[in-house]
Amino acid sequence: METEGSGDRLAGDDVEELRGSLGEQQHRYLRLLADFENVRRRMAREHESARHEGRRDALLALLPALDTLERALAAGSADTPFYEGVVATHRLFLDTLRELGVEPIQSEGQSFDPNQHEAVATEPADDVEPGTVAREVRRGWRFGRELLRPAQVVVAARPEVAEPWP
Amino acid sequence: METEGSGDRLAGDDVEELRGSLGEQQHRYLRLLADFENVRRRMAREHESARHEGRRDALLALLPALDTLERALAAGSADTPFYEGVVATHRLFLDTLRELGVEPIQSEGQSFDPNQHEAVATEPADDVEPGTVAREVRRGWRFGRELLRPAQVVVAARPEVAEPWP
Questions:
Q1: Residues A3 and B7 sit within 8 Å (Cβ to Cβ)
Q2: Which residues of A touch B81 (CB under 8 A)?
Q3: Minimal Cα–Cα distance from B145 to chain A, Å?
């Protein structure tokens, strides 16, 4: 009877312990599976944002070439055919930026907005409200819904506080 | 005796079955863990390549604007100050591309290489070896070690097989 009893108890302990281990192991598995899914989802999102960052880096780096082109165009030229060729380049550059999701920021005449404007100076203004952008010094750009580069602007001020630029 | 015997067998079966399930469950867990690590490693690599792709997309899209600029410059201008301004833009564009890892492909005088040249025509050539690039029609670009855009070229051929372009 004793042998039988201890044998039964032994088997019973084993079964209980094994059931516990099995439950625990199943729990660990499910937890790992959930972690796995989370990491997979997070990484898919990060993949998209890495692609976006790559575009952003390249576009931001090329804006100074566009600035130089715009400065050249602003000076004008008597050589109309050559000037027209450069105008075509400029238009194609802007069209391509637009297709890539890059749009210029409106500045002149707008209320100064620190989220997209960078004030480089103030100047006295009689005809516009103080706090309005009087002039744009360097064009600003948005990339989708984010800021690619702020516009550098001169802000209208009351005459006594104006600091001219440059 | 019969009850005891069947009781022992029952517990024994349970234990064996549970041990089997536990082993299997541990095995599944380890397999999932290995998969997890593989996916994590692969995704880290893909993150870097997504960034690279984003850059690549933006740069490739902007090459036609550079082509237009180069065509305008090739025509020349009598308005030297304006022309110089456009030359400065061009130089800045090329410098920026170089900084981003984009370099022009050498074509003229090189052996035709289908990995970086796209033949748009052939023309008779007496002074160069047939199979040599006689002229470049559109510049090609490399992005790091990969091809961004092949150079479009006219290849020197024996007079009897030449097909002029355009």
A1: no
A2: 75
A3: 17
Task: Give B1-14 pLDDT, tens digit per residue.
Answer: 444 444 555 566 68
| CA distance, residue B146 to nearest chain A CA (Å) | 16
State yes or no: ipTM above 0.90: no
Q: Which residue of B has its CA nearest to A52?
A: B54
A77 dihedral zone (left: phi>0; alpha: psi -120 to 50; beta): beta
**pTM of structure:** 0.76
The shortest C-alpha distance from A145 to chain B (Å) reads 17
Question: For residue B43, how many C-alpha atoms fall within 13 Å in the half-sphere facing its CB?
Answer: 17
Nearest to A50 among B50, B61, B92 (CB): B50
